[in-house]
């Protein structure tokens, strides 16, 4: 069961193969997109997204959306930040903000815009790890697919102390929610 929280949380919510990779070496998510789950089931995505007020992602995640979603409308309704040093085309159908800001400054800006809702780190693992490095990651929600990828983008390339707060099965996925254990905040 989830512990209720009164303040906004910074949450890394993602999927991984059993061996801890979130994408193949060539950034493919075919292994993920072919899996079955109940979006309204345990740890379902619509319920999670309803509590999100701001989104952040890295350049590779944004590039994947551009490459795979094409001309489709932007999938998120809340302000979205892309941490990047690359130049990307601007979209006119969404509030997307490209940034090179330091993570503490970015976190403060996102929190102000999120209006009391959670911040979602979409990906990747290195970006989530950078938030953790600054003590700004509160929770990790991971859906584990019944596949191993052998190599690719790691789930979270950091050493973190975590505490399990929820475990569920949803379709083909084992879903886990972890609280990040903070020594001092």
Which features characterize this protein?
single chain; 185 residues; alpha/beta; 8-stranded mixed beta sheet; two-stranded antiparallel sheet; 22% helix; disordered N terminus
Strand order of the largest sheet: 5-4-3-6-1-7-10-9
Q: What's the total number of strands?
A: 10
Strand content: 25-35%
Mean pLDDT across the residues is 93
Helix percent reads: 10-25%
Radius of gyration from the CA trace? 16 Å
Instruction: Give the SSE string.
Output: EEHHEHEEHEHEEEE
How far the N terminus sits from the C terminus, by CA atoms, comes to 24 Å
The number of helical segments is: 5
The residue ranges in which pLDDT falls below 50 over 5 or more consecutive positions are 1-5
Output the structural class.
alpha/beta
Write down the overall geometry: globular
Sheet bearing the most strands, described?
8 strands, mixed
Characterise this structure:
This protein has 5 helices and 10 strands; from the N terminus they run ββααβαββαβαββββ. It has helices at 30-33, 45-50, 59-69, 103-113, 125-133, and strands at 10-17, 21-23, 52-58, 80-83, 96-99, 118-123, 139-145, 153-154, 162-170, 173-180. The model is unreliable at 1-5 (pLDDT under 50).
Tell me the layout of helices and strands.
Layout: E1 10-17, E2 21-23, H1 30-33, H2 45-50, E3 52-58, H3 59-69, E4 80-83, E5 96-99, H4 103-113, E6 118-123, H5 125-133, E7 139-145, E8 153-154, E9 162-170, E10 173-180
Parallel strand pairs: 1-6, 1-7, 3-4, 3-6, 4-5
Antiparallel strand pairs: 2-8, 7-10, 9-10
TL;DR of this structure?
Helices cover 22% and strands 31% of the residues. By secondary structure, it is an alpha/beta fold.
């Amino acid at each position: 069961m989830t512990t209720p929280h009164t303040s906004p949380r910074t949450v890394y919510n993602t999927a991984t193969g059993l061996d801890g990779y979130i994408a193949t070496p060539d950034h493919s998510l075919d292994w993920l997109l072919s899996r079955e789950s109940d979006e309204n089931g345990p740890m379902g995505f619509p319920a999670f997204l309803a509590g999100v007020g701001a989104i952040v992602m890295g350049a590779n995640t944004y590039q994947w959306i551009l490459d795979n979603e094409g001309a489709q409308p932007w999938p998120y309704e809340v302000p979205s930040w892309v941490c990047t040093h690359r130049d990307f085309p601007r979209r006119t159908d969404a509030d997307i903000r490209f940034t090179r800001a330091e993570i503490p400054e970015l976190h403060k800006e996102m929190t102000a815009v999120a209006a009391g809702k959670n911040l979602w780190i979409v990906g990747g693992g290195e970006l989530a790890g950078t938030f953790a490095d600054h003590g700004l990651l509160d929770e990790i929600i991971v859906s584990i697919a019944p596949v191993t990828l052998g190599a690719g983008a790691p789930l979270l390339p950091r050493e973190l102390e975590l505490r399990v707060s929820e475990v569920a099965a949803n379709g083909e996925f084992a879903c886990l929610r972890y609280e990040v254990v903070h020594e001092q905040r």
